[in-house]
Amino acid sequence: MSKAMQSCPECSSALERDRDETICGECGLVVGADRIDRGPEWRSFSEGEASGKRTGAPLTRSRHDRGLSTEIGYGDSDTRLTGRKRRTLTRLRRQHNRARIATKTDRNKVYGFTEIRRIVGSLSLPRSIREQACTLFESAQNEDLLRGRSIEGFAAAAVYATCRVRSISRTTDEVVAVSRADEAELQVAYDAMNRDLGLPTGPIDPREYLARFATELDLPRSVERRARELVAAALDDGLASGRNPGGFAAGCLYTAARRENVDLTQAEAAEVADVSTVTVRSAFYAVTDDE
Q1: Structural domain count, the chain
Q2: Is the per-residue pLDDT at 164 higher than 50?
Q3: Which CATH number characterizes residue 192's domain?
Q4: Does the model's pTM come out above 0.70?
Q5: What's the mean per-residue pLDDT of the chain?
Q6: Angle 59-186-136 (CA atoms, 0-180°, nearest 5)?
Q7: pLDDT band at residue 3, thresholds of 50, 70 and 90?
Q8: Can you give the residue range of the structural domain that contains 28?
Q9: 225 Cβ partners below 8 Å, 6+ apart?
Q10: What is the pLDDT of residue 2?
């Protein structure tokens, strides 16, 4: 309170503090009111008053309910229950888990999101890819694209399409290797999403593979820089059109390694790109003849 408001403006008497109001003790004039709750914004339940937790887990698109549903957990209190109460709690927990998935659509979404999380984890992709892939899968389901098609194929295609949109170098073979769908199911699902959802995808740039391939082959930075220059020149001349982008990147790395006097065989370059040595040799001849 300021010094000018230490006395009543009406009768100049002393002011008193009554809960959240400042009043005059003589005439009863209410000078000010402060209804701001200055206590903590969190409530403490089972962890004592020292706990400052106020929120639960963050919202996520990788759950069919965005992580808002509750669950009956397995706490220490179960050990103090015996007989009928423990059986009742088990039945309640089972029925509660069943009620979380109300429709077949939610059931398919739960299965698809679980598959997406597994694929993303196996490919060591960031969490943002998982969230965006789940959003893409949900959009495909809302457009009724899953009818008569494989859920596993759409889960794998959602991860692959997200990597394409985000310019992350992952091939269909790498996604199929860790998914429960085969290449045909992934391709059918990807074509459906690309056609009906209008994915902002374009031709794959071979430069997206250079950093990862160079790291796996333990090549120096000079080789990667030279390979990046070779790919850029080949793209300008149209030499990379119609070629396997991963194989072309491996061929440029092999060419750059030869020019930098670094030991690298065609077989090693082909193995890291999962292509044949003929593909690497074809890219090598294309880049060499262009110069």
Answers
A1: 3
A2: yes
A3: 1.10.472.10
A4: no
A5: 82
A6: 25
A7: very low
A8: 3-33
A9: none
A10: 45
